[in-house]
UniProtKB/TrEMBL annotation:
The gene is yadG. This is Putative ABC transporter ATP-binding protein YadG. One of its GO terms (molecular function) is ATP binding. Pfam families: ABC_tran (PF00005). It comes from the Bacteria. Gene3D superfamilies: P-loop containing nucleotide triphosphate hydrolases (3.40.50.300). It comes from Polaromonas vacuolata. PANTHER family: ABC TRANSPORTER ATP-BINDING PROTEIN. SUPFAM superfamilies: P-loop containing nucleoside triphosphate hydrolases. InterPro entries: AAA+_ATPase, ABC_transporter-like_ATP-bd, ABC_transporter-like_CS, ABC_transporter_ATP-binding, P-loop_NTPase. The lineage of its organism: Bacteria, Pseudomonadati, Pseudomonadota, Betaproteobacteria, Burkholderiales. Residues 4-240 form the ABC transporter domain. Keywords: ATP-binding, Cell membrane, Membrane, Nucleotide-binding, Transport.
């Protein structure tokens, strides 16, 4: 039985309060399963529908059609069972400012009917670098610290499935490392992890399988290693001090002075460098590297031009 199963999940939002405005189709027939023990990445640009899908999974919002199961429990009809199997770290920082960190975690334990949870709460505080903040009020904490508490809250009932929606957005490097060490440990010990992130290098390092969403549709679903192998395989990267001629620029990914060309082989690389020289430009700091997940992501997104974009 899958840990998470999405079957033909669609979601439309009305764009006006009175529900009379045009509809936004946030999710369009999304179907895939995540197996127990997987570290699964859900990627996509802003507005692709990631948070909508997670909200439906968490029972915070209702699918317009389709169904979602967590270890066999339907998130609508077996809400309490499904909820108990899930630990969800939401994208938005929501918390009650009146409680201390430890109180918040005890209350959350109580919500799941767990008494005497202090040993596990202490372990969570320790592993998330919150031990010295146990008695601090939530409102005294910085954004990064609040994020840690949200993670601890999600884990308080030892859920089998851990769901993290952009947990590292705007978070310092230290927390990222602490968080990933801990989540990777829980995954090794058997927890299933579903992660959305903008940091593609995080997804590449952590996730064994990845789904990419674009405008509410699954446009890629594969093992991370297969996604990486599917790409044009190499990237030529260098710096220049002047603009590239338009016909070359059209083939490149350009960030300020850094230019990157997808290259299949040595011949491609020679041709690009020759073209740059002929244009009277000097390429500096030349590097050739393997395509990474960001290259693959950009390729997949560029390939899947949707109808509305063609019309736009
Ligand atoms: N409560 C809502 N009401 C109306 N539109 C919404 C609402 N939540 C999300 N949307 C729209 O649904 C689409 C998907 O949003 P979201 O699920 O937040 O994407 P992501 O998390 O991938 O950035 C976007 O077009 C967004 O504007
Ligand atoms: Mg989101």
């Amino acid at each position: 039985m899958p840990a998470i199963s999405f079957k033909s999940v669609s979601k439309t939002y009305s764009t006006s309060k009175k529900q009379t405005g045009p509809l936004v189709r946030a999710l369009d027939e999304v179907s895939f399963d995540i197996q127990p023990g997987e570290f699964f990445g859900l990627l996509g640009p802003n507005g692709a529908g990631k948070t909508s899908l997670i909200s439906i999974l968490a029972g915070l919002s209702r699918a317009t059609s389709g169904s979602v199961h967590v270890h066999g429990s339907d998130v609508l009809t077996d809400f309490a069972d499904a909820r108990r199997k899930l630990g969800v770290v939401p994208q938005e920082l929501v918390f009650d400012p009146f409680f201390s960190v430890r109180e918040a975690l005890r209350i959350q334990s109580g919500y799941f009917g767990i008494k005497k949870n202090d040993a596990w709460i202490d372990e969570l505080l320790e592993n998330l670098g919150l031990a010295d903040k146990a008695n601090a009020n939530m409102r005294q904490l910085s954004g990064g610290m609040k994020r840690r508490v949200l993670v601890a809250q999600a884990l308080v009932h030892k859920p089998r499935v851990i769901v993290l929606d952009e947990p590292t957005a705007g978070v310092d490097v230290e927390l990222r490392q602490t968080l990933w060490q801990f989540i990777a440990r829980l995954n090794k010990e058997g927890s299933t992890v579903l992660l959305t992130t903008h940091y593609l290098e995080e997804a590449e390092a952590l996730c064994s399988r990845i789904a990419m969403l674009k405008q509410g549709r699954v446009v890629a679903l594969a093992l991370t290693s297969d996604l990486l192998a599917s790409s044009n395989s190499n990237v030529l990267r260098f710096k220049i001090d002047k603009d590239l001629p338009a016909e070359l620029a059209a083939k490149a990914r350009i960030t300020g002075r850094i230019v990157q060309f997808p290259a299949q082989n040595a011949n491609d690389i020679e041709q690009y460098l020759a073209a740059v020289r002929q244009a009277g430009l000097v390429a500096e700091d030349i590097e050739i590297r393997k395509a990474d997940l960001e290259d693959v992501f950009l390729e997949v997104m560029a390939k899947n031009v949707t109808h509305s974009e063609v019309l736009a």
